Every structure is written in structure tokens, then in C-alpha cells.
């Protein structure tokens, strides 16, 4: 295809996501604040490292940044050309998606909030789940550009809906994580072997992505590999709570979860994997989940 | 084999579990308080409906009753013979398992706490997860009698450990259920289509047995089929909390979950499926999870 | 004195507060959306019912409205004259106080957030606690105008500080209210006479304004007189939670309180006294706190 | 009077409580595990230090021990004589009161659960609140013996009712303590001076024994004087939760409070005053409540 694609933000996720694009597109521009990383990407995957002014003039622009704040800063300073579609894969704020969609509409362009789930391994394999909010026509047009790194690619509603689903997904992850920590500590304190218990629960109704993946691959083995930082999970749970509060909904369990994750975040190193939230709980009980 | 097997308690689970035993054993005795059900089972599966005195004198006795209270009542009134193994599939209280194991030991018999997970469908297919606490030799001896209805059959620790794992499993189920209700209501209040959101979350890190099975098969379709009653889930969450409190563990998230489930239980009809706990939450928000 | 005073918003609180002003000031202007009430006030207390344009041109303008939204609407449409001091007795939003203070500063005027505590009885007696945020000089100048209805009049910090203290005060009221409901229900379920228990607790370390006043005067006697509406308490707890979240603070107990009060609010008639929040809890336990 | 009085347990409370008895009674026997303390009391207040066998044969026996466990141990080993009244001022377990009352009844004696509130200062001044459960006749007979150290002396119900009221009182203290910590930290994070805020709240509806006494006298001044140990408050909140659970009551706010206090307890030195529970919260927020 002759359309130009740009990818802005080559972090742990973005770097891998952008690596799939050259298979389907001739011209893939990449930009990163630490520009050396963009150049490394270019040499590794035959993309083109360009300046931000150039990147933002592509036909389809992906962004994958820490928060909506960074996305808004770039979009408002370097608005895309008319007809362009901006696909923001950040785990962002629904309100910001609405604002950016309106802002781009005034420039004749489109904004899709398109956060992803599947972690670095999914980014590497190109099997990410992509949950998308915004204009359906723009969604259809951008679909083939998302496909290279996407597994399930789903339009879930108007602007902000993608971010909302992602925030709630991560909130459920957080709730399952903390509940699992409390539950398995209770078992250990009662003399139950955790590996046997885990096998039973993973064959039962209490299982979740946390018991199937996070607990065995990150916690029980005490590795806590940094692939999704705890401050980002804390941010996402905060987004979910904001959504509930704007709708005047009581959410006692999610609010408590958010408070616990935020406490873990405040008392942890910023470079901690989200799974290390359980270490706060371990410090209370003096029992290691292993 | 010439050993005799008895099955006590032919409720929704027990009736189906006992149906598999005649494939492996010549003599399968069944008993049920409402005796007509035992006779029906006998005619349907070639088991023998017998009185409680006879049933409790089998070599291996299974029980599957509402709570540990009913189990203790039968065992203390009709203790099994020396050498017998009592396999209690009730979702019972760990403390009671310790007490019953000691009581049977005085009669030269064995008590295994062997609760099951997998619901009526798993009981029907004979693929239940069985988590077992108690004497390892008795476990090995009873193994082949459990196999007909078991998928994963796992020894998880001393007496009470099986009940503990089951209680924690059901507590995690409860936490996931309530968190999911809050999360999906938040999405609906923000204009997101729940079926699309569910598809994304089931392909993401927030998934659980609740999002994969309970939500689509019981809640979103508004069927709430009664296969596991809410009062029993409330009881199980109470058991898990007791385990935590005996160990002096703080469990803020599980405690809140137990309180919410108990509130749902107190305000629901006793014949409600566990999934209908979400109806309490719906009554607060005036938003149906559908 | 020859300075002119205006009072905007003659609700249950404002009507009584404004009634004290003519003792100290010759000219007291009053305005109310339902203007008949202003006229009634004028005839009852020798104030002057005027239109909003006139009221907002007084030297000192008091406002006492449901929320900051109504205050902002009036201030931005009818900004006061240079040198004027606007004393807002609404239980408002700290962020709004900062915004209004800045807006009035541009007009050479001052904004004090000056919420009150003491309910209608305190307004009637002129013994309200007034917690004030904003410019200290404006505070000193306005002091004598606040005195007629104030008991304790306290400057607590910059713009927004008054609203913040009020929001936290009401959050503590809410927490004490709900905790008291749970505690006294626990006692009643255990056969304790609530009046005797109350007497003991009011002579002990568990006492609060709730046990000393709200429980005996509103709940135990089943009167729930409407003097402070539940939706307003729900709003105030929301303001307190927003303050915590902006500061990235975990507040597990206050968050749960806010969720419970909001649940009570959603399931109650809008014309319910704040004390009737306990009726939600009573509906769960089927035990009346009486 | 010629009746003999004994006081068992001369801790921080008991030592002071027993000091008032000689004013009204000729013969006051005292016993303490660390016997030197009994001898010191005897020399200081003209009581008689006696062995436990002698003490338990008095007409009225007071006990003031850490928990019901110690009380039961002494009573069952040294049952009082027929007609005696045992007045247990421990903050004990309601179930234990029922058991001890039944046990003493078999010996023709009486057990009153009579926990006290008012701390060491109230014990010193003889103004303690005494909340009493058990036989009303025994209560009337024991009244004059309680009076020397009691302010409000109140019969609140059958055996266990006194302990229940005390447990709920201390639970409310705990809830107010933690809520106040969260609330005042929120104010400080928003730039409000805590002393001014405290003055306003103590003149408003959010006040409690915590804001009136604990916060200014123990926390804001950073003294945390050890007069009521945190492990005892944790124990009392546990008693209150047990009462709720036996009655199948949901108590979300009290459960969370108990979990937070227990977390503070697990992470604190055993010799910490109850007020130092807030230090756990301070460690989360990195903001000192001062």
C-alpha cells in the first residue's frame, strides 16, 4: 500500500507493535523522545526514524505513550493533516479521547482510542487485543493497519469506549490480583501447599488470568519481571474509578481495590512490576506467597 | 471390585456424582433423607437404596450434604466400621474436618475432606475437580472410588485442607463476581456495549471464570439458573473469612466481598442462584447488567 | 454601619442566617430564586427583597446555595463591584473556590469560601461554626458581617480550605453515622438494649456527634426530620474523596463510606434527611435501629 | 462493711481501680501474677496482698486481666464460694461471659461482665463508665462495690451484654480513629492547617472522642502515650466482628476497620498505644498527622 504509517512512542509495547507494520506497509515512520531508540528500530525493522513534525503528517498515526497527557501535548502541538486517522494505543483517559476526537474533527481528522491488552509477549507475537472507541468509518479504514499487531480487534463504542474497557479490564486484573494474594496467604497460613491449591483452583470456578498466569509466572517464582509497571496499573484503576464516579455509581469493591493498589504503588519503587503489589500485603502478614 | 461403596446425600450434585460409581463398583448403596430420591436413583442407575445404618457400614462412604453440621450429625450417630474411609464431598468447615478425622481415627476409620468444583455439569460428565485433605494412605486407597466422577483429583494437605481450598476458591469466585458486576455496570453507564466489552476482556488480563462463564451464561442472558445456591456461596465466603481470622490475617478485600455477598443473601430468596447476587447491585444502580 | 450587605439563597439555612444581619447592619438586601420567599423574609426581618442585579452590587455579598454550580452561575453572570467581598456559605467544591477567587480578583473583588456547620438550629441561634478559606485581609474585613450568625469563625487557609474542612467534617459525620448503624445493629442482634448501650457509649471513647445527637434525636425516635438532605451529604462525601484523589492519597475507609452513602442516596427519596441513610442498612439486616 | 472484696489483676487499670476500694470497704484483698505489684499496692493503699486461693474466696471478686482466656483459667481453677459475685472488668468475649456465668451458677455464685471505659485517668479519678451484663440481683448487690471507681454504672442486659457494648464502643473508637487519620491527612495534603481544622470540626457535626481527645492529646503532639495498647484494641475490634458474624450481619465498614487496625497491629511494636495505628497510614502517605 502506498499510504504512510507513523508510530509514536517506542516503549516496551510500542517498539514491538511497530515492528510488525513493515510487513504490510512500505513506509513506516517511527519517532521516540529518546531518538536513539527510533534509530535502533529503523535499523532493526527497516522503518524510518523521522522528526515529530514528519511523523504527525502520516496518513495513519499510532501513538503509544505513558498517559493521555503526553498524547494531548503532541496532538495539540502537531495536529495531523485532514483525512488522517490517529490511533492512540495508550491506556488513556476516556474524557481525553472525547476531547481529542473533537479537536481532530475540527482539523478534518479522526481520533480512535485503541488501547491494547496482551503485554509485551502479545506485542511481540502480534496477537494483542485492541479495544477501540470512536468513529466507525475511521475504525474500518484503520483496521488493516491495526491487524499486523492485533489478535482480537474490536470496536466497542464511541470515543472513550476503548479506554473505558481497558480501564475496567485492568481494574478487574487488579481486583483479582489482590483477592488472590489474600486468598492464597490464607491457605498458606492454614498449612496448604500453594502449588497444589493453585492447580485445583485453576480447574475450578475461582480461576482468573491472575491464577492462570500472574501467580505462577510472576509471584510464586518470585520473579516479578517488569513488563507492566505498577504506577500504570494504579493510574488505570484510577481511570476506572473516575468513570464510576462521573456516573454517580457506588463501586465499593473497585474503590477498595483502587485504594489498595494505590497504597502498594505509593510504598513501592516506581520500576516495580504490577504483580509486586502483593509485596505490600506480604509486608503486613509476614507470609511470602511462594 | 468386591468392596462396598455408599453415597449419602443425593442433591443436585450428589445424585449425578453417584451415578458414575456403578461403572466401577458392583455394590453401590445410596441414601437420601427424602428417600424417594434414593429409590429413584436405584432404579435409574442400578444402585441400591438402603437405610442409613446400612449405608454407613460400607467400605467407602461418600457424603455430599448442605453443610458440615449435617455431616457431623450422621457420622456421630452412625460411625463407620474400622478400616472404612469416609469421603466428605460437602463444602464444609476445615475445623469440622479436623474434628471428624480425629473422631473416626478413634473408630479405626478415616475421614477425607474432599469438596468438589465443577457444578452440576461437571458432576454429570464426571469431570469434577476434587481437592482432598487428610491421611495420604486413605487418599490413595480411596482414589479409584473418586475417579469415576473426578477430573483433577488432588491431595492438598492435612485434614481441613480440602475444605480450605474450596472455601478460598469460592471466595475468589465471589470477589470476581462482584467486581465484574461493578465493572460492567460502570461500562454500561458510560455507553459501552457489554457484549463487545466482554469479548475484549475475555481476550485480556481481566478475564476470570466469571467473565468467561458466569457472566455470559447466567447474567447477561438474565437466566440465573439455580445450580449453586446463593446461601451456600455466602456460607463458603464465611468459611474463608473464618480461616483468615483464625490466622489473625487482615483480608480487607475478601472481608468486603463476604459482607456484600452476605447482604445479597439476606435480601434474596433462598432459592436464588449465586449469580443473582448481582441483582442487589442492580437494585442500587438501577442499571441491569444485560 | 453604612456598608450594604446582601444575602443570596434563602433556603433552610440561609433564611435563618440572614435574619441576624439586620441587628448589625442598616441595609440588608435579600434575593431568592423563588422570590416570594425573599419578600416573606423582608416583611419578617425588615430586610429588602431586591433583584439579583442589585443584590450582587452590595459591599458584602453572602451566598448559600445547593452547590458550587449555582454559585458560579450567578457570580459569572453578575460579577460584584470592585472592592466587594463575596462570602460563599455553600458547602462547595474547593476547586471552584480557587476559580472564583481568581475570577473575582480580576474584578478587584474577593471570594471567601465560608461554609457553615451547626444545622438549622445553629442558624437560628446564630451560633454556626464558619470555616473560611481565602484572602486574610478580606477575611478580617468580612468578620463583623459574619459574626451575627457565627459562633466559631475561623480562617483555615487559602481559597478552598474552608470547603475542604467542611467536606472532611461531613465525611467524618458520614463515617460515624454508618459505623454507628452497624455497631448498634450488632448490639441489638445480640439482645442489648440500645438506649442503655447509648448511654454507656456516650460516656466512653466511642462517642461522636452521631451518638450524642443524631442517633437519639433522629434515628432511635424514628423521626428523621429533614434538616440536611441526604443528597447533600452524598455530594459532600464526594468532594472529600475528590480532594483525596487529587492528592493521590489512598483513603480506604472514607471511600467505602462514600460508596455506602451514595448507595443510600441512590435508593432513597431525594427529600430524605441524611440520617435516613441508616434505612438502607436496616433493609439489609431487617433490624430497626430503635 | 464487713464483706470481703478482692481485686485480681493490678495492671495499669486495675491498680488504680483497686485503689478506691479501701475508702468503702474494710477488707480489700489484692492479687497479681507479678506479686511484687500486689505488695506495692498493699503498702500504698492499705489493701492486703494475698495468694490467689484466698483472693478467690472473697464475697465480691473483681478481675481485670488482658483477655477472657486468663479470666477463665483462674475461675475454673479457683471457683469462688457459693453466694459470691465475680465482677469481671476485663474487655472480654461475650461468649465467655455466658460460659462463666453458667459455670459459676453451678457453684451457687454469680458472674457479671463489667468492662470499663475511661482509661487510666478515669480509673485514677474513679469516674469510669461500667457497662454490665448478667443477673440483675447480683448487679444490685455488687453496685456499691463498683461505685468507688465508677462514674456511670449501667446494667445493659444478660451475660455478655457488657462485653458486647464495650467491644462495639471500642470498634467505634477504632473507626473514628482511622477515618480521622484519613480525613486530616487529606486536609494536610490540601494545605489546610490541622489545628485550625480541628477547632472547626470539634465545633461541628464531624466531632468524636477521637477529634476531641485522641487527636490533640496523642497524635498531633506526637506523644502516643501507652495507656491502651494497640493489640488490645485489635482484639476488641475482633470481638465486635465476631458478634456481627454470629448474628449473620453484614458490617462492611466495621469489617474494614477491623482489618485496618489488625494490619496496624501486625506491623507495630506490641507496646504501642492504640493511637499509633495512624502511623501505619502515615507510612503509606508519607504525611505526618501533626
From TrEMBL, chains A, B, C, D:
Record has tRNA processing as a keyword: no
Gene Ontology molecular function: any one: NAD binding
Residues of the 3-hydroxyisobutyrate dehydrogenase-like NAD-binding domain: 160-281
Keyword Acetylation part of the UniProt annotation: no
Active site (record annotation): 166
Keywords, in A-Z order: NAD, Oxidoreductase
Residue ranges of domain 6-phosphogluconate dehydrogenase NADP-binding in the record: 4-157
Listed GO biological process terms: organic acid catabolic process
Pfam families recorded: NAD_binding_11, NAD_binding_2
SUPFAM superfamilies documented for this protein: 6-phosphogluconate dehydrogenase C-terminal domain-like (SSF48179), NAD(P)-binding Rossmann-fold domains (SSF51735)
PANTHER family with a match to the protein in the record: 3-HYDROXYISOBUTYRATE DEHYDROGENASE-LIKE 1, MITOCHONDRIAL-RELATED (PTHR43060)
Family under the similarity heading: Belongs to the HIBADH-related family.
Name the UniProt record assigns to this protein: NAD(P)-dependent oxidoreductase
Organism of derivation: Acinetobacter sedimenti
Amino acid at each position: 500500500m502506498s499510504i504512510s504509517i507513523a508510530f509514536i512512542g517506542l516503549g516496551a509495547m510500542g517498539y514491538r507493535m511497530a515492528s510488525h507494520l513493515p510487513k504490510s506497509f512500505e513506509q513506516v515512520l517511527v519517532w521516540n523522545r529518546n531518538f536513539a531508540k527510533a534509530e535502533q528500530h529503523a535499523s532493526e525493522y527497516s522503518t524510518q526514524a523521522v522528526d515529530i513534525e514528519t511523523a504527525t503528517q502520516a496518513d495513519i498515526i499510532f501513538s503509544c505513550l505513558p498517559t493521555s497527557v503526553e498524547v494531548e501535548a503532541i496532538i495539540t502541538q502537531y495536529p495531523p493533516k485532514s483525512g488522517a486517522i490517529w490511533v492512540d494505543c495508550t491506556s488513556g483517559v476516556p474524557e481525553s479521547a472525547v476531547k481529542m476526537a473533537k479537536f481532530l474533527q475540527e482539523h478534518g481528522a479522526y481520533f480512535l482510542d485503541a488501547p491494547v491488552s496482551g503485554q509485551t509477549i502479545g506485542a511481540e507475537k502480534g496477537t494483542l487485543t485492541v479495544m477501540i472507541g470512536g468513529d466507525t468509518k475511521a475504525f474500518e479504514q484503520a483496521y488493516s493497519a491495526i491487524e499486523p499487531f492485533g489478535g482480537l480487534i474490536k470496536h466497542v463504542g464511541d470515543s472513550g469506549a476503548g479506554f473505558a474497557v481497558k480501564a475496567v479490564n485492568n481494574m478487574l486484573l487488579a481486583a483479582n490480583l489482590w483477592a488472590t494474594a489474600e486468598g492464597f496467604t490464607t491457605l498458606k497460613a492454614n498449612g496448604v501447599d500453594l502449588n497444589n491449591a493453585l492447580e485445583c483452583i485453576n480447574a475450578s470456578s475461582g480461576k482468573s488470568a491472575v491464577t492462570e498466569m500472574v501467580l505462577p509466572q510472576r509471584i510464586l517464582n518470585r520473579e516479578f519481571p517488569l513488563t507492566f509497571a505498577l504506577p500504570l496499573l494504579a493510574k488505570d484503576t484510577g481511570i476506572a474509578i473516575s468513570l464510576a464516579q462521573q456516573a454517580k455509581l457506588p463501586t465499593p469493591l473497585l474503590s477498595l481495590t483502587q485504594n489498595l493498589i494505590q497504597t502498594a504503588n505509593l510504598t513501592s519503587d516506581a520500576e516495580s512490576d504490577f504483580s509486586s503489589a502483593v509485596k505490600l500485603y506480604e509486608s503486613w502478614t509476614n507470609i511470602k506467597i511462594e
